[in-house]
Amino acid sequence: MDIELGVQNVARPVTFSTEASADEVGAVIADAVASGKVIDLTDDKGRRIVVPAAALGYAIIGSETKHAVGFGALDA
């Protein structure tokens, strides 16, 4: 799933993919914002993304569907 985090006073958003579900990511973000702590997520390559909740401008949580890449069988 693709995640985009907009950080205040930063021109580019933080974008990454994760294996976590939309509910899990949403819960982590909501808890961090409510408690004033950091948003701590792990991407699908094992890297940690840590953003102060106070600096979060917006969060876009993408769909959980995997998009197919390549060509399907063509019937002639």
From TrEMBL:
Keywords: ATP-binding, Nucleotide-binding. Pfam families: DUF3107 (PF11305). One of its GO terms (molecular function) is ATP binding. This is ATP-binding protein.
